[in-house]
Amino acid sequence: MTDTRPTTTTGPRPAATPQPTVRTCPFDPPEEYRTLREQAPVTPVTFPDGTNGWLVTRHEDVRAVLADPRFGANRRAARTGAPVPADTPLPPPAPGMFIFMDPPEHTRVRRLLTGQFTVRRMRQLIPAVERIVAGQLDAMASAGGPVDLVQDFALPIPSLVICELLGVPYADRADFQRNSSTVLRLDATHEEVQQAHLAMSRHIHELTVAKRAAPTDDILGGLVRDGRLTDEEVAGVGALLLLAGHETTANMIALGTMCLLGNPGQLAALRADPSLMDNAVEELLRYLTIIQFGLRRVALEDVELGGHRIEAGATVLASLTSGNRDATQFSGDPDQLDVRRPYSPHLAFGHGIHQCIGQQLARVEMKAALSALIDRFPGLRLAVPAQEVPMRDDMLIYGVHELPVTW
Pseudo-torsion of CA 108, 109, 114, 117, nearest 10°? Predict the structure, then answer.
């Protein structure tokens, strides 16, 4: 692991370069990341919004940043640089939004959820998830191809599951899916994002108040009964879990399917040996890494990293996609999909105290969905040329907007 303790900075600070954002292959991060990992793994960049910071691209450095308490998730401490005035006040994290909090507030909120997402509890959900998957496949088979795998399969599965876990009516899915899409759009204005967040939180707040009057056996109901969070905090937690609980897994299922269809040898290996699916899920998570640009952190004090002095208040972007293609961490060629690749800890779920709390649920859903899909439809194929599939380049969570398939 990289030593991030303060030492003497070596050499002058290099000039900032634009953050790489353009993909040449739908399954690969921007090509510039390879050069950066080898030649400038910690480098100053200008972000697409015009602000300045640092980009970290090597696996060990990304892990170091995400595990170091001197890098905070609360961006109120950020000094963003031009064109935004350095003294521009940033709002505090919304109540319950623990992914934007630092300890002790982060610890106070997250620890109330840890027991809800243990490996054992997620394994207990497997039969229910498999029933949901089977139901969606039955509906696809009845309708006949072609279908949009996003709307007819990948999106309903995690949406149904997270609604059941939280105690949110699935009938409300159109509203929360529309709002979560706005939150993740790269071209959404600050006002649009705030309004979408507010709409989601207001809806969950109404449910929270109702659960206080009539307790329910679900995550929101449990938080209400526990009493250690305010209704506003419960609403924020619920909105966060609702958004993350369906957007990420839905895109991994759809993009993972497209990726397997584009790698017929790997798909054939899975069909020949279904026991490879656990490993294949980890490999798809590593290879695709749908947190498109990475995780932002703020230096809470001066920190030495990779021979550079990161000043207090500076924004640091830890690139998960680049770290997951680091040849020093993964055997063979990490730029190739290999469902037989020996497992090595990847960064798809982040690292450190903010590592994704729902990662075990995502694994359960991905395995159930992909296993049943390729078994049910051995002739599954794209219904349009791969280059016509609309990719989510315009979203914080990468994937496909639609995936027309037939069989």
Answer: 180
